[in-house]
Amino acid sequence: MNNNKNRLSLAIALGLLGSVASTNSMAAGFQLAEYSATGLGRAYAGEAAIADGADAQWRNVAMLTYLEGTQVSVGGIYVNPNIDVEGQSSMSATSTKSEDFAHDAFIPNLYVSYRVNEQLAVGFAVGTNYGMETDLGADFTGTNHGNEASVITKEINVNMAYQINQQFSVGGGVRYVIAEGSFGATTPNETNLGPLGKAPKGTTLKYMEGTDEAWGWQVGTAWQINDANRIGFSYKSEVKLNLEGHAEGFAFNEIGPGFLNDFYSKGSMALALPATAELASFHQLNDKVAIHASFNWTDWSSFEKLDAEMPNRPTDTIKHENWEDNYRLAFGGTYTLNQKVTLRTGVAYDTSAVSEEHRTATIPETDRLWLSMGAGYAWSDNLTLDAGFTYIFAKDAKMHEDDTSSSLFGGEFEGETTGNVWLVGVQANYRF
Predict the structure, then answer these.
(1) Which of 37, 72, 110, 380 is deepest in the core (most CB within 10 A)?
(2) Residue 16 pLDDT grade (very low, low, confident, very high; cuts 50, 70, 90)
(3) Does residue 3 lie in a domain region?
(4) Does an H or E element contain 218, and which?
(5) How does 220-235 read in b/e, with b if 16+ C-beta sit within 10 Å?
(6) Which domain CATH number covers 209?
(7) Buried b (16+ CB within 10 A) or exposed e, 117-133
(8) CA angle 126, 124, 63 (to 5 degrees)
(9) Domain containing 400: what range?
């Protein structure tokens, strides 16, 4: 197994999916909100209605019509999750704990916009919307339900927007998504299977990895109500992936003689990155103060189950997911201190995409409260530097894993996840 490569999760299959991009709990499911440090400073409130720079196209393509000339925005966000899980397996007499098991990550981005004429604008963007990585470690006694998972996507957008009149703009774009992923589960202790033999601790039960590339699309619109008030709406399509790679681990064998033999096969699994939508508003109260808000929806309920496909074998339903749609509400403010300095702040609340009965140890997926602040500095007429900081409170959440097949190799697991996340980002915006 290659643990160094970027991987997009087949992990949902054993409930290994989580809300991380080599991190944890950024947004619901394995979704990432971190598209720019500028927006980070206001908890991504009002993003579909604000055009600070070329990065605005990521959340609403129509905002390209609010940008003049040629603009370039480049930056990145460092994410540091501190997530723990503690509990007990039904076949163990003592409790088990995995600390800080979600990995840190740096999430880069690049955006370019060009105003063709008074009505038409085009843009190019590189970033990511989804990602995760967790590793519970060899000493955690719930690894039979999953010991590792990862999710990484890279996305390229080509966008176009048109200003219909002084009030309305529309836009659309194509999305090219490159995805890689994996999931794994191992025996937490030596497992005696009677006449079938013994499986040593750490033996791979199931491991899958795969890659794919797919297309999606996005649309957006903006309504300039008057000089001080604006509403924006955007929608990103579902992106369907068929992750092709391989599967290994003795638990793929049929129970009987040779059950503990090594198993290796080519395999694939269908995985859909869910559709999303945002309704946002921006209000300029006076020369110095603006307020903004966003309501976001993600179609996580599309995850009902995942099926694994391998040659000359029947379709294997690995796991019934039963996820739920997620909602996010954010409020923020911008204060223009002077011609050089702009201050930002925001608060947001993310609802969990999974209920307690379906939560897993490698899915510390729960409600989250965001507190954000940021600042921008106009270095010159052409160059603006932005920075943002966010602290996320993750709500303590209980879980109970009782998948029948996984429980044979270590028992059911019941526990609780706790944690927090902090993010810091920088952005540079240049106007030609």
Answers:
(1) 37
(2) very low
(3) no
(4) strand 204-226
(5) bbbebeeeeebbbbbb
(6) 2.40.160.60
(7) eeeebbbbbbbbbbbbb
(8) 110
(9) 11-431
